[in-house]
Design a protein that fits this description.
CATH class of one domain: Alpha Beta
Distance between the termini: 38 Å
Structural class: alpha+beta
Strand content: 15-25%
Radius of gyration: 29 Å
Largest sheet: 6 strands, mixed
Strand order of the largest sheet: 1-2-6-3-5-4
């Protein structure tokens, strides 16, 4: 993660040679070049340009694939919200997808009169105190909003951007920025600028009250997220008189209930000015052409006066402030210190210190707490804002351990830092590790854009980004010690997140809303013109696995696969066994145990430190069906790394205390999972719906069996891992023959490899009638998952057609489900439907649908979701747009690097030895509307479902659930198996 990214850890919350066509020719009247700002030695080659109106352009060319990742960044976030209208920046972000007087407008003259009336009614609603009178005003808003909706071409922006072949269309708001995201084909840059220049030219608050419902839902969802409570407690303590601490991005419930169109327009007019915005691009494009089009489409924007934000000094923290927050999730403790903002010297040193404390291998916390099994987990974190920043530690307790004990252990690690009780080589190793991770990330256009966006938002010179490693390497051990002694003392906040009922949960009650009709067929004049423009088709490039993957054998028995890394110097080496938990229930335990073990030559801590010093990461991971032993890092350390991890696999020594601690921690994590909504619904309950009581998920060692384990039960498994049939994969720059020769010498295997044992089999349940599975859990919302089993083996035709179905109907901002459930009926913040194909050829297809809503809306949300799944509203234009979008994506996406290998094996497990994207491209070229309708009729319509409901029994109507089918109320013990 680059050095100024806003980094929130789990304690709180965020390659190859180009084989494609050249960018389009520039216009005849465009200049040959522009006077860019740049920094010598910049590995991303960023060019910066400023239009005359002050709009910034950040441009980074990356010819990996013919796509461009785009951000339109506005330097305005919740910090700039009026104190009496918090949540405004976030809500404005939502409204920027609704169009202008051109985008989405079918009769603007009539619509603007209605929108003006709605605006006045909202002001009246805000200033009315009597509940009955407020309800009467809102009823007028509802009726007038429905009239206005009839004059709108629904979701027109989403349709147009989808027609470009965009993916990842979204936006986000944070304290100092609102950022609008797209990933587009490189030959659509001009049309994208045309569309976005119109989009940002004007704010139209249409379909306002249904979108407000979505924000209400988001607010209520956050009441069940404990990390947000911790974040709020830390922020309001460190920044007591600054909006960082006095305001949240989502806003207060009271402000959300009293929105003001007037204030939203004022905010837009104040901050959405060209001299407060940046176009940030990374990908395959001509920078000169990009600037020429930016001048054409954004150059006419008029510069505005951006009010200066006056930073109020925060009162000093002279002693530790302790706070408690409560919620249903697992307990943790967070410690935070305040520092100066992005322009100070602090943040570079803080990133270095954070890495020295926690890098998942050899940091002070990693070695002293995590590796030593003194806590369940611990970490270090950084936040970086413009005015102030924060640094801190987090930890989770082991069984029987108090949060106060965890806090004491965390603070002791700061004392180690102050006393210089860390290895002298750690600073250089951390800098190298950060550089390695950023080298990997820089292959991604997304990561490049993220770095440039942060630079713009925080007002930081790009030169500092380029020279950040030099700055970090300049710090010596005594600098770290002195900084810690001066700054990391009792001047902090400590937040104990305890399990229990939260007395401060605030739910926003929402007024009744009449669903608005969505006009999918009509187009605005702007959209008609825009969509009629022809775009040059790019030639897709599909992978010939045989040409990319070189194959040989090691010692005549082991398959050796090789791909040359053309992107960077980093290598990856894998030993892969087609064996997992289904073959041996103790295998995942052995894999977890390994990280706590030493050998006859090294302690566990020394092993982690040795790998980290070498710039290497060593890992062993397992799943139901597979084990991966991996080594990645710097090429100069390859040989030493292989020797070291071969030594570990052969010589790992059992440790009774480490085993006892690991078992206790595993049992604690099991209990923590029962407090996690996502684990309950998406793992335990979903698995129960598919398999019932006999499944791999439930087929695990009991507490008694775990406690009866002996060290050699697991070390024997480790020592025998590579005695089983397996294959080896190398991705890097070393010649294949050289790697093969070295592995022939160092890779230890027996004279005869053992065959993979037969796995346990678990039958998928038939779903021949609709039933309901309910789990009672204390929460503000209710979450619903509909699951239906389809054909029992991989079907290529279903796989290909489902891509079209999912794109049109099932997921994304322009999908029918999203439009109907959220934008028309205001029933949920999130909804999707997804037809999934199996990863293995002999497994079934599934149809899955989700809606998260208020408990009192279940009787509306569930039938609405089922109805639109069965009836699938048909918009021929939108269906065609979805098909064309898939083709554009396939024309511009490129499979590169080691992903080629993993894609090959993913397809092989389905029964195919070719790139199935080629099949999809052919299918979409030849597809027609009737094919999609027939797929929906035969594979989707009138299915039986197992309906999973997670919610509070106090709020959920069990009588209503019973009307859907037989209801089985399950306990957490039943679905988790413990």
């Amino acid at each position: 993660m680059h050095f100024w990214v806003i980094f929130l850890t789990t304690a709180f919350c965020m390659n190859s040679i180009s084989l494609f066509s050249q960018p389009a020719d520039r216009p005849v009247n465009a200049p040959l070049s522009y006077d860019y700002e740049s920094v010598p030695g910049d590995p991303l080659g960023v060019k910066m340009y400023t239009l005359e109106n002050g709009m910034k352009l950040y441009l980074s060319v990356n010819k990996k694939e013919p796509r461009i990742y785009t951000n339109i960044a506005v330097r305005a976030g919740s910090k700039h919200d009026p104190a009496d209208a918090t949540g405004l920046a976030h809500y404005l972000e939502h409204m920027m997808f609704k169009g202008t007087d051109k985008i989405g407008a079918l009769n603007w003259e009539q619509e603007k009169v209605l929108l003006g009336g709605i605006s006045r009614l909202y002001e009246e609603h805000k200033n009315t105190e009597d509940p009955a009178e407020r309800a009467e005003v809102y009823d007028k808003i509802d009726r007038m909003s429905n009239k206005a909706a009839n004059l709108v071409a629904a979701n027109e922006y989403d349709k147009m951007v989808a027609a470009l072949g965009a993916k990842g269309t979204n936006a986000y708001t944070w304290v100092e920025q609102t950022v609008y995201v797209n990933d587009i084909p490189s030959n659509e840059l001009k049309r994208w600028m045309e569309l976005e220049s119109e989009r940002f030219s004007q704010l139209v608050l249409r379909l306002f009250h249904t979108e407000l419902e979505a924000v209400y839902e988001e607010f209520n969802i956050n009441q069940d997220r404990d990390f947000r409570k911790v974040f709020k407690a830390v922020s309001e303590t460190l920044f007591p008189t600054h909006p960082y601490g006095t305001q949240t991005t989502i806003g207060t419930g009271e402000h959300l209930k009293n929105p003001s169109h007037v204030k939203i327009h004022q905010y837009f007019d104040t901050y959405y000015q060209p001299n407060n915005m940046a176009l940030v691009l990374a990908g395959d494009f001509d920078p000169d052409q990009a600037v020429a089009w930016a001048e054409e489409y954004f150059g006419s924007y008029q510069k505005g006066r951006i009010p200066e934000f006056k930073v109020e000094p925060q009162p000093d923290l002279t002693e530790t402030v302790t706070k408690e927050v409560f919620g249903q999730e697992s307990e943790n403790v967070t410690i935070g210190w305040r520092f100066d903002g992005a322009s100070s010297a602090d943040h570079m040193l803080l990133q270095l210190i954070s890495g020295m404390l926690y890098n998942r291998q050899a940091g002070v916390l990693d070695i002293n707490l995590n590796q030593a099994q003194k806590v369940l987990s611990s970490n270090a974190w950084n936040w970086l804002y413009e005015d102030y920043s924060a640094f801190g530690l987090g930890g989770q307790p082991r069984e029987g351990q108090s949060l106060e004990e965890v806090k004491k252990l965390l603070m002791e690690q700061i004392e180690h830092l102050k006393n210089g009780e860390f290895e002298d080589w750690l600073i250089d190793a951390v800098v190298r590790d950060i550089k390695l991770s950023e080298t990997r990330a820089s292959e991604s256009n997304n990561a490049r854009v993220s770095a440039m966006t942060d630079a713009f938002v925080l007002g930081l010179p790009w030169e500092r980004y380029v020279k950040r490693f030099e700055e970090m390497r300049s710090y010596r051990k005594e600098d770290i010690m002195n900084f810690a002694k001066e700054h990391l003392n009792d001047n902090c906040v400590v937040v104990y997140k305890r399990s229990g009922e939260d007395p401060n949960v605030a739910k926003v009650e929402k007024p009744a809303i009449t669903p608005v009709s969505l006009n999918r067929e009509d187009k605005s004049a702007f959209a008609t013109s825009f969509l009629s423009q022809e775009s040059e088709s790019l030639t897709p490039s599909f992978v010939d696995y045989d040409a990319v993957i070189q194959r040989s054998t090691l010692k005549d028995d082991i398959q050796f696969d090789y791909i040359r890394n053309e992107a960077n110097e980093i290598f990856e080496l894998y030993y892969i066994l087609e064996m997992g938990k289904k073959h041996d229930k103790m295998l995942p335990l052995a894999v977890d145990y390994l990280k706590f073990l030493g050998t006859d030559k090294y302690s566990p801590q020394e092993l982690q430190q040795e790998f980290y010093k070498l710039g290497l990461s060593f890992d062993v991971s397992s799943s139901d069906d597979r084990v991966y032993v991996s080594l990645t890092g710097l090429p100069e350390s390859f040989r030493r790394g292989v020797v070291l991890f071969e030594h570990i696999l052969a010589n790992a020594e059992g440790n009774e205390e480490a085993l006892e601690n690991m078992v206790n921690d595993r049992l604690q994590r099991r209990q923590n999972a029962k407090k996690n909504k996502r684990a309950i619904l998406n793992q335990a309950l979903s698995n129960y719906a598919r398999f019932g009581k006999q499944s791999s998920y439930l087929d695990r060692l009991s507490e008694e069996e775990l406690k009866a384990l002996k060290p050699n039960d697991l070390t024997d498994i480790i020592h025998n891992l590579t005695n089983y049939e397996h294959r080896v994969f190398y991705y890097g720059q070393a010649p294949m023959g050289e790697v093969q020769e070295f592995l022939e010498k160092e890779h230890r295997i027996p004279k005869k490899l053992l065959p993979i044992p037969k796995p346990a089999e678990y039958s998928h349940l038939d779903m021949d009638s609709t039933r309901v599975l309910f789990v009672d859990f204390p929460m503000v919302q209710a979450e619903v998952l509909l699951i239906s089993k389809g054909e029992d083996q991989f079907n290529l035709d279903h796989y290909l057609m489902s891509e079209w179905y999912n794109s049109y109907f099932g997921y994304g901002l322009s999908s029918i489900v999203f439009q109907e459930i959220r934008e028309s009926r205001a029933l949920a913040y999130s909804a999707y439907t997804y037809f999934s194909s199996p990863a293995d050829k002999n497994k079934p297809h599934y149809l899955q649908a989700y809606v998260g809503t208020q408990a009192d809306k279940l009787s509306q949300a569930i039938p609405a979701l089922r109805q639109i799944i069965d009836e699938m509203p048909v918009s021929a234009d939108q269906i065609e747009t979805a098909r064309a979008s898939i083709l554009k994506k396939l024309q511009t996406e490129r499979m590169t690097g080691s992903s080629v290998y993993w894609n090959y094996w993913a397809n092989a497990r389905k029964g195919y030895d070719r790139d199935l994207n080629k099949d999809l491209y052919t299918a979409m070229q030849n597809a027609d509307l009737n094919g999609l309708l027939e797929f929906q009729k035969s594979q989707v319509r009138n299915r039986n479902y197992t309906i999973l409901v997670l919610g509070s029994k106090e709020n959920v109507s069990m009588d209503y659930l019973s009307s859907l089918g037989p209801v089985t109320e399950l306990t957490l013990e039943e679905i988790f198996g413990y």
